[in-house]
Each structure stands twice: as structure tokens, then as C-alpha cells.
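Task 17 of the worksheet. Students: predict the tertiary structure of the chain below and write it out as C-alpha cells. Keep your answer in the requested format; marks are given for formatting as well as content.
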Amino acid sequence: MKLQFPSIRIPVGVLWTAGLVIALAGGSLTFPQWWPPTQKWVRTTIAGRKKAPLIEDHHHGPGGHAAHEEDVHDHGDHGHAHDDSTSLELSKQALGNIGLTGNYLRPVVLETFRRAITVPAIVVERPGRTKLKVSTPMAGVITHVHAVRGEAIEPGSLLFELRITAEELVSTQTELLKTLGDLEVENKEIKRLSEIAKSGAIAEKTLLERQYAKDKLEVLLSAHKEALRLQGLSERQVNEIVENRRLLRDLQIVAPSPDDHSHEELRLSGKELVPVAFWDGSDQDHPHPHPPLILEDVLVHKGEIVTAGTTLAIASDMAELYIEGRAFEQDSEMISHAAAKNWGVTAIFERAGNRTEKVPDLELLYAASGVNEESRTLPFYVRLPNNIVREVPSPNGLKYVEWKYRPGQRLELRVPVEEWEKQIVLPVEAVAQEGAETYVFQQNGNHFDRVPVQVVYRDQNSAVIKNDGSLFPGDVIAYRGAHQMQMALKNKSGGGVDPHAGHTH
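Model answer:
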């Protein structure tokens, strides 16, 4: 028995549609592989057709149109035509001399360009945050100085020990202990009278009077505690005086915390303390939550008598600083516009050897409310996160650190004021200028072809090229050394070289 299947007929239109969909899908998936070569082939063909009539055969006299074979070079798969007057071939050594490494041979891409203004600036401290003063809340005599100028300390590190001499504090503590003793006696008496009152041996009025006396002592105790807090003691210190029944004679002053003040700045003697040294990361179970403080100055010495409020030392928190920019008065609206758009600011630091360091995407905080009367400039402020670049241990166990940025450093700020989308943006080193013409150099096999372009905007760092078909996204060009390549091309053609060509003064 033979099985028969019904025949299925697919319309020709459906087959064509399915084939077209498959072809389009395959073409889109392989777009990066076939589109750039096709684009370059079309451009090269058009350029070759335009240049062919211009080639004059000098051997056949004026008007000849036979092109020399040496004017067209075959570069393998590229098949590009080269004009010797606009094409340059560089050796490996020449590429190295102008620094044209692989990092500087990149395809052209369309990107968003922000036109910026450059203003002078200086690194400054954060008001009320960078400087931390260590002071004593009460009078006394300095008995020990553990602080060392210039060292890195962590919040909570012991800095000074003080023998208290403040009469008011001693008197308040004495009254507190006396009140505690009276309160204990009153409690014992109330307990005794309560048992007698149950048998009716004494009147209820007598027990009630003792209760009133206890209440008065508790109020007086609370008042003494509050007085000690006002004189500078912490809650824990007051509680320890109550528990131990001992007067506070010695005070230990530790480094404050720059952020949340989680460490108490005053401690009772006899407690476990952190050594005066910056945490080195060895205790991984208890990592240090705060950046190190730099002990800028120690203002007292052992044996010195100090009064309440005396500054003992000055520490600095350098983990974050400000940059104070100084814009011209007429630029105030642009500064405010950049802040409203949350555009990042770029800081440019001058380094040794004519090097520059760029720190991009810094946060613009605010502009001052007034213009400086003398300089007629508008101060504005930018956040500058800092980091440690060097740690220096010492033989005595102390540590010293160096921060990357420090108050007083001079720099420049680039503040974006206008945004242009889908632009061809190149560094100025990629553009060579000669008279009214401006050129870039496009890689074509082992050659570099000079391509004339139009610059629509240029500053000291970047050049925006008009997207008029001279360059296309995907064209690989030299991102530096354009001026040197232009000079080499003029030498090759036998023309004089202007040493200032391509430079703007």
C-alpha cells in the first residue's frame, strides 16, 4: 500500500517576500563587514573619475589625456588611487617619531560636543569641613602630648591628656556624689519605714514625707547631671561618675571624626584607646570607616595651663576639596546654565615636563551670590575628590601620608556652555592648517591621504569638522602628528616648509 501526501503549493509572491526578508536580515547582521568597504570603494571610484581628466601627459604635449602608470598605485585589496602630491607613506620609525601609535589611528565617529570656556581656578578648602580644631572644654594642665605634627591619625586617636583644675567642675561633681549618697540613705529609710507602716506602728504621713524628700533628691541629681553636660562632659562620662562614685580628675582628648562625629571627643582615663597612628589595613574585621586626618599643627606642650575653649591642635580632612573657579562677570549666565544642566566640568592641572593632567566630569556645585569688586570675577565652586598618592612609615611607628591635591594649587577649568550633537570632533593634533586650507590625514593601506576639511569650531584642545562628506564615520585617520605629516608632504613635493604652519599663536 502506497502512502500519498497532498501536494502543497506556495504562491510565488510569498516565496519572493520570504527571500527578501531573509536577505535584509542577513544584510543587517553583516552590515559592519560589507558597508565600510563598499562606501570607500564608491568614494574612491568617484574621486578617480574626477582626477583622471586633470592628469596631463607631458610626453604627448598639452591637451594629452594619457595617464602615467606610475600615478596609480595598486595596494593589494584596497585598489585605491593615490595622488603623490596628497599621499604620504611613513616608515615605522617615522610613525614612532611623531607618536602615531595604534591608539592614535582610530575611525571617525559622530559624538556630542560641548563648547566650553576656560577659566583660571585654584584648589581651596571646604569651609567648615577641611579644618578641624581640637579644643578642651574645661581648664586644666596638659600632662601628656601624644600628638605629633604632620602625622596621619584616625578619628578617635588619643592626642592629649589633661589634669582638670576647673573649680566649678570639681564642685559640681562633689555635689553630684553627695546627692547620690543622700539618695541612697533616703531609699534605705523608706524601705525600713514601709515595713513598719504595715504594722501600724507609724503614721502614713511620716512615710509620705520621706517619699517627698526622695523626689527632691532625684530632681537635684538630674540638675547636677545636666550641669556636668553643660560643662563639656558626655553622657557616658556622667554615667561612669555615677557608677564608679569617683571624681573625674584626668581628661583624655581624642581626634574628632570629620563626618558623623561617632567618636566622643573626650574620654575618661582608664579606657582602652586606639594608638596614635593611621590604620594600616591589617585589621580586616574592623576596617577604618573614615579617611585619615593630617595633624597640621600642635599648639600646646606638656605642663602648659590651658583655659576652657583653648585650641590644642588643628587637623585637616583632605579627602575632598573644592576648586574655586573665577569666571568673568559676563560669563555668569553660562555658568548658571551649565550648573542647571548638570554638565561635568574638566579640571586641567599643569605637571612637570609640560604635561597636563585632565580630571573630567567634576560636579559644579554653585556660583557665588556676588561678583568680586576688585577683580570683577564671579567665583564658583566645583567638588574635587582627593586620594592618597604616598604613605611614608617612620621607625617610631607613626605614619605620614601625601594627598594628590592640596589647597593653593593653580589650574584651569573647562566649563561647557553649549552642546552640539552628532559632530565629528578631533583633537587639534589631528588637524594641519596651511593658509586658508585645513587638512586631516586618512589611512589608506600603508599610505596616508591628505583630506581637506572645513573646521566649524576650534579651541586649544578640539576641532569640530563640518560633516559635508569630506569625512565619513568609519574612516580611519591619524589623531595626532598632522602638522609633521603636512611638513613631510611639502618636503616631498619640493616646496618650502613654513615652520609655523599648522600652529595658531
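Marker's comment: The first strand starts at residue 87 and ends at 88. Residues 167-199 form the longest helix (33 residues).
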